[in-house]
Design goal:
Layout (H helix, E strand, L loop, with lengths): L5 E4 L10 E6 L6 H12 L6 E6 L4 E8 L2 E8 L16 E7 L6 E3 L5
Parallel strand pairs: 2-3
Antiparallel strand pairs: 1-2, 3-4, 4-5, 5-6, 6-7
């Protein structure tokens, strides 16, 4: 993640769990699955953290969470302003889901593109 310019928020307005964080980037060729493990290592305070990665260039948002010992990554269409409010975060059209294995970095697509 060191080569990607980002703005990090340690909290998200209206997050009732107080476990959400947000990373806002503007990158054309950014595959969230390739960076999910780095995000986990650099931005998670605990395994309960939910990290939103908002890409303003590609107009997508991604949720990264730890589930059953691995990372679960869900991608959505970006909704204007979602990086500022947990109530609308991840409310865009669901696109894809992936599992990223923490032990070896392998990536498995869970859902197929339409």
């Amino acid at each position: 993640m060191t080569e990607v310019y980002s703005t990090k928020y340690d909290s998200v307005r209206n997050d009732v769990t107080e476990k959400w964080k947000c990373l806002v980037i503007a990158e054309n060729n950014f595959d969230i699955t390739e960076y999910a493990l780095s995000c986990y290592k650099n931005y998670f305070d605990s395994d309960e953290t939910i990290l939103a990665v908002i890409n303003l260039t590609t107009k997508t948002s991604a949720s990264i969470s730890k589930v059953a010992g691995n990372l679960y990554v869900s991608q959505y269409e970006y909704v204007d302003g979602e990086e500022h409010d947990a109530k609308i975060m991840f409310s865009g059209t669901h696109l894809l889901d992936y599992i990223v294995y923490i032990d070896n970095g392998d990536i498995e697509k869970v859902t197929e593109e339409d």
